[in-house]
Amino acid sequence: MKDTALLEDALRTYINRRCRRAYAHDLRNGLQGLFGGVDALTRAARATKPLAVPLDQLTSFVQQAITNHERGLERVLDSLAPEPQSPVAVSMRELLMDLAKFLTNDAARNNIRIRQDFSDDLRVTAPPCRLRLLGLALLTESIDAQPSGGETRIAGRTVQGRVQFEIIDSRTQARPSSFIEEAVTGIVAELSGVIESKPGANGGHEVRVQLPAS
């Protein structure tokens, strides 16, 4: 049996390379805010008549843009080279919604619509970086399995002390097994959870993950 830590490291390396475009888009968004703020301040400094927007508001805008860009950098660094993290309470609903937003451009390139259907907050206690890696692995696999377009639905609920979330897509062909599946299964097992992957009842594919609720 392969070492789970090695598989997880290999999965993170693969995901970082796979999501390079999405990381770059995140960083560009932060820089655009900074450029917009600096441009507004430059025009304000050159203005010869009263400003439409007060200077203090422009300054606050630039400060917020800097904060947003710093947060974006932290997210990228946490994904590329995460520090060891202790288990904390995490909302899987918020995490999966954030990942869906992060992968919006990837989904659009494949003409894939991402739908979301959550009935509660889906709170679990685990290292956030491992949950993020798990979510990215499952979502990118779903997107890549539909190169000609389709739909990915993310749903979740908490039932009898277990958080359950599903990723259901409309792929028409099964993808060959890879180390990704083994790595994901290992991560879920170490989080005291179970994962099930199977063809959908009405076609497509379903992945269901259950984790202990907080």
Describe the structure concisely.
Helix content is 53%, strand content 22%. The protein has 214 residues and is an alpha+beta fold. It is elongated and about 65 Å long.
Structure commentary:
- The two termini are 30 Å apart.
- It contains 7 helices and 7 strands; from the N terminus they run αααβααββαββαββ.
- The protein is an alpha+beta fold and 214 residues long.
- Helix 1 packs across helix 6 and helix 6 runs antiparallel to helix 7.
- It has a 5-stranded mixed β-sheet. It has a two-stranded antiparallel ribbon with strand order 1-3.
- It comes from Steroidobacter gossypii.
- This is HAMP domain-containing histidine kinase.
- InterPro entries: HATPase_C_sf (IPR036890).
